[in-house]
Amino acid sequence: MGETMLHLPIIGDLAPDFEVQTTHGPVRLSDFRGKKWVVMFSHPADFTPVCTTEFIAFASMYDEFLRLNVQLMGLSIDSVHSHLAWVNNLKEKMGVKIPFPIIADLDMKVARLYGMIHEGSSSTATIRAVFFIDDKGVLRAMIYYPLTNGRNIPEIIRLVKALQTTDAHGVATPANWQPGEKVVVPAPATTDAMEKRLKEGYECKEWYLCFKHLE
After folding, report:
1. Helix H or strand E segment including 203
2. What is the pTM of this model?
3. Active site residues
């Protein structure tokens, strides 16, 4: 019998559940369903330079994640003791308190479940993955970065806001969208709707591309 292939989660899937130890104690992902969004991000290793800059950046914008009802969670395949030592180091040497939990994934259970180990980069460290899980527990977006390049935290926040705007108003968001800017009206799906679209008062470039301001 061949080895069973692991089904990696894709956008639209229910995010695979797990129970883990973190710097804030035990956490079960499904406990957030019906309550909060989750942004889970992996980093290659504690006590490394690029990861340090990212954690400082995430911590500096933590209040914005709270305002968006987002639970932020870090992850690497280091131990809880390593995470705690690093968190303490960041507080003592950098003056930065890390207010969110960091998952200890020594056995790589979560990393492999979510496809965070990319053999071409490293077989012993997670790449810089970001998973956006909504308050229904559905995986809504994923972003992957290499080991060498840090993430843009404002873009992560922008994407959360875009996803929440889509849910709240049934619209899409155009390239480079920022909150307060015009959104995209979903394209019509029938001939009748196409003919009506240009008469519905939207700002249209063509029948399939129309914009509006949210009230």
Report:
1. strand 203-206
2. 0.91
3. 51
